[in-house]
Amino acid sequence: MYRTKTCGELRLANVGECVTLSGWVQRTRKMGGMTFADLRDRYGITQLVFDESKDKELCDRANRLGREWVIQVVGEVSERQSKNKNLPTGDVEIIVRQLNVLNEALTPPFTIEEQSDGGDDLRMKYRYLDLRRPNVRRNLELRHKFAFEVRRYLDQQGFMEIETPVLVNSTPEGARDFVVPSRMNPGQFYALPQSPQTLKQLLMVAGMDRYFQIVKCFRDEDLRADRQPEFTQIDCEMSFVEQEDILQMFEGMSRHLFKTILGIDIPTLPRMTWADAMKYYGSDKPDTRFDMKFVELMDVLKGTGEFSVFNEAEYIGGICCEGQAVYTRKQLDQLTDFVRRPQVGAKGLVYARVGEDGSVKSSVDKFYSPEVLERLKQTMNAKPGDLILIISGPDTLKARKQLCELRLEMGQRMGLRPKDKFSCLWVIDFPMYEWSDEEQRLMAMHHPFTSPKPEDVPLLDTDPASVRANAYDMVINGVEVGGGSIRIHDAKLQQKIFEILGFTPEQAQQKFGFLMNAFKYGAPPHGGLAYGLDRFVSLFAQLDSIRDCIAFPKNNSGRDVMLDAPGVIDQSQLDELHLAINLPKA
Ligand code: ASP
C-alpha cells in the first residue's frame, strides 16, 4: 500500500498510530540533529521528523531529499512540541522510521506555495506545477463542487443531461466560429459550437422537456480577463414555460449554489428592466453592491447657464459620492484623466463639492448662478461633504457608458465593491435588436431565436427597433453570469425575424432550415438560458480572472503555452485535407 492516510487528515487523536504517507517534499530544514520535511499531497501538509540520534543513515538520506521529490514514509504519529495553528495537521508530526524515494524531481522553476515567485507566463508553462499550489487547487475543488451542485439541483428538478455534438455547422449571427476541416468531405468544414442553442431547441421539439448540459463552447473573439476561446456553459432549456417559470427555476438554482457552496442565503432577486439599468447605471449588467445611481441633469443644467458643453449636450448625468468632497484638486485631475482614457472616452468631467456649510463649489461656477447650483445639489440629493461628478455628451448611450465607468471607479476607490459581498439581480425586457454601425443593420441583441414580447409583436412591422424581447440576464456584482430567453416556436414568426435581420428567405432556409422545418412538426413553447460556469465560479472564488478556475487556460493570444498550441501541422496532414497555407507577407 502506498499510503494508509493522506497528508491532510492526521490529528491529535491519531497520536501513537503507525501510518504510511506518500506525497511531495515541499521543503526540508535541518536543525541540529533533526531534519524536518513538509510532505504535501492534495489533502494537506504533514510535518515529517528525522532524528539523527535515532537513525543516522535515515537522517542522511532525508538531508538529500530535494524539493518536489515524491516519497513514501512509514512512521509514528506524535504530538508536536511547537504546534502550527495555521495547519489543520499542525498539532502532530510523523517520527519517520522508513523512507522510500518513489521519484526524484528537478528543482521546480518557481516555489510551489500559496505565494509563488513565478510570474504568469512561467506558471502557465508549468501549469501542472502551478496546480500543486493549494490556492490554485482550491479553485478547482470549488469548481468541482459547483458543477456537482448544479447537477444535483437540476436532477432534482427533473432535468436530463444530454450531450450535443462538438462538430457542428457554422451559423451566422454570432461571434466568429472556430472551424475544423473535414477530411471525408473535402473542402468542407465543421464549426465548433458557440453554444448548443439550436440543438437544445431541437431537443425540446423532440419532447425532452427539461434539458441541461455542462458543455464546452467555442468563440473566436478577442480575449479579456473574463473571456477564453473555449469556455464552459451550464446550458438549460425547458418546455411549456413562460419567462416567469424560468426565472423562478434558475433563481432557485442560484439560491441552492450560494447556500450549499458559500453558506449564504441570498434574498429574492430584484428585477430591473433593461431601460432602467441603462438609465440608472449606464450598463445592462449593473454592479448593485452599491447605490450611487445616475441622476439626469438636463433640466437643471442645460440652458440654465453659459456653459456651452452642457448647452449642446444630449445627455447630462451625475453621481453623488458620499463624503468625497475631500477630494483634492490633484485627485480630481486624476479622475478627469481617468474618464479621458480612450477606454472610457469622455471629453471631460465636471465636479461640484458640497461644503460642510452646505454651499456648493463647482468647476463650472462661473457659468451658473448660485440658485442653479443649489438646485443641482437638491436634485442630486447631495449632503454636506459629498462630491458630485457630472458627465455629458452628444450621445446618450455613450455618455451613460462613460458615467458607468466613472461610477465603478468611484465605487472601487470608496471600497464599495468588496469581493465577498454579493448582489444578484435579473435584468429583463431587453430590446430585441440593436443597431450595428459596422453592419449598418439591426442585429439580434440576444440571438435570432428569441421571442418578442407578445404585446410588441405588432411593432415588428412599424418600428422593429423598439420591440422588446422576452429575454433576461442574471447579473451578479456587475458580471453577467447567465442569460437566456423565451424562444420563438412558430416557423412563420421565426421567418419574419430572419427577414428583419436581413436574411432573404433562401438564406434563412439554407442556414436555419433545419430549425424552421422542425418547428413545423409540433414545437412546444419553450425557453431557457445558459450560465457561464467559469464566470460564476470565479465570482464564488473571488478571483480576478476566469483563468484561475480553469485547469489549463489559454493566454491573451489564445495560446496554450504549456502545450504550445496552436501549432503548425505536417504537410501530409494539410494535403490530406486539401488545404494550402497562404500567409500574408510579413
Ligand atoms: N445560447 C445562449 C447563449 O449562449 C443562451 C440561451 O439563450 O440559452 O448566450
Account of the 3D structure:
- With 586 residues, the protein is an alpha+beta fold.
- It folds into three domains: 12-103, OB fold (Dihydrolipoamide Acetyltransferase, E2P), CATH 2.40.50.140; 138-272 and 424-549, 2-Layer Sandwich (BirA Bifunctional Protein, domain 2), CATH 3.30.930; 290-413, 2-Layer Sandwich (Gyrase A, domain 2), CATH 3.30.1360.
- 29% of the residues lie in helices and 24% in strands.
- The chain has an eight-stranded mixed sheet, sandwiched between helices. It has a five-stranded mixed beta barrel with strand order 1-2-3-5-4.
- The protein is globular, with a radius of gyration of 30 Å.
- The structure holds aspartic acid (ASP).
- Aspartic acid (ASP) binds at residues 195, 197, 483-485, 528-530.
Task: Give a short summary of the structure.
This protein is of the alpha+beta class and about 575 residues long. The chain has 17 helices and 22 strands.
Write the layout of secondary structure elements.
Layout: E1 18-31, E2 34-41, E3 44-51, H1 56-63, E4 70-79, E5 92-103, H2 120-125, H3 127-130, H4 134-156, E6 160-161, E7 179-181, E8 189-191, H5 197-205, E9 210-218, E10 230-239, H6 243-262, E11 271-273, H7 274-281, E12 295-296, H8 298-301, H9 308-311, E13 315-321, H10 329-340, E14 350-354, E15 360-362, H11 370-380, E16 387-393, H12 396-413, E17 424-428, E18 433-436, E19 441-444, H13 459-462, E20 471-476, E21 479-486, H14 491-500, H15 505-519, E22 526-532, H16 533-540, H17 571-576
Parallel strand pairs: 3-5, 6-9, 11-17
Antiparallel strand pairs: 1-2, 1-4, 2-3, 4-5, 7-8, 9-10, 10-22, 12-13, 13-16, 14-15, 14-16, 17-20, 18-19, 20-21, 21-22
Helix pairs in contact: 4-6, 4-16, 14-15
The structure holds aspartic acid (ASP).
